[in-house]
Amino acid sequence: MKVLLTGGSGFIATHCLEALLKHGHDVVATVRSPAKGQALVDIFKGQNVSYTIVKDIAEPHAFDEAVKSDPPFDAVVHTASPFHYEVKDNKKDMLDPAISGTTGILESIHKSAKTVKRVVITSSFAAISNPSSPPKVYDETIWNQMTMDEALTTKDPQAAYRASKTFAEQAAWDFVKRESPNFALTVLNPPMVYGPVRHAVSSLEDLNTSSKRILNIILGRPRGTVGSPIHVDVRDLAEAHVLAITVPEAAGQRFFMTAGFATEGAMGDIIRERFPDYAKNLDPGLSYAVPPYGIDNKKSIRLLRLKYRPVEDTIIDTVKSLQALGA
């Protein structure tokens, strides 16, 4: 297949690119600048990778030209969306890029890429999570219950992020219901995503949010706002993106993508045992607290036939990659 991959230089997207190539697909990645595109080409030198520039995914018609190709695209993997907690304006920094970027690319595909039959969107556990009133068990049927008014006015950057993913995903499902496009939609909802750093980073300070969480643990830094104690390995998530555009049963489905719980205490134990040089840095107060809810990932295992890696492999490989970057 020929696949358009958005946000191609990101942490998750670079692993998706690698997985797509391993399965024999040709990939065109959208990036924000020629430098980011060239970095991708250099990482995957000699393979079927090219790039196209989309400077701002929130701009109207941002993807109109990117979805056009000769030969035409068969599938689109849409990973581009902001994931950070440095929010000054909820609407401008979080909500608009997520919602407009998602609806914008679907509109562009519907209008100018009629050959596309499968689209997969990277959503998030954030679109499922209800911190104030969690269910007994989280699965794909659960939605975050924040209102738009709450999203616009909250001072909690995590809440703003959850809202952005929720409204973006809802907008995608509404689009498909309203427009009945030629393509089938699949949405993946991962929690914290850990694993080896594959994308180009200029320094440890430029790491993606989830990788920086592990870095802060091994260096004994204050962790500030921390994420969910639920995790998935980025390589398993990347494989799921490929399966989502190829497995017939995945069409029209939403998947809660998680391998299970990964508390900071448990991750610290793995680091202490396998990387004793970091033991002295580890905060003795790392939490082992498991939240008062269960998780159900059976749908992803059943329909995608995915086998999740154990958390030990994920953390060990993450720390090794951080060491290679100078940690």
UniProtKB/TrEMBL annotation:
Keywords, comma-separated and alphabetical: Oxidoreductase
Segments forming domain NAD-dependent epimerase/dehydratase: 3-251
Presence of keyword Nucleus: no
GO MF entries: oxidoreductase activity, acting on the CH-OH group of donors, NAD or NADP as acceptor
This protein's record includes keyword Repressor: no
Recorded family membership: Belongs to the NAD(P)-dependent epimerase/dehydratase family. Dihydroflavonol-4-reductase subfamily.
Name of this chain's protein: NAD-dependent epimerase/dehydratase domain-containing protein
Organism of this sequence: Exophiala bonariae
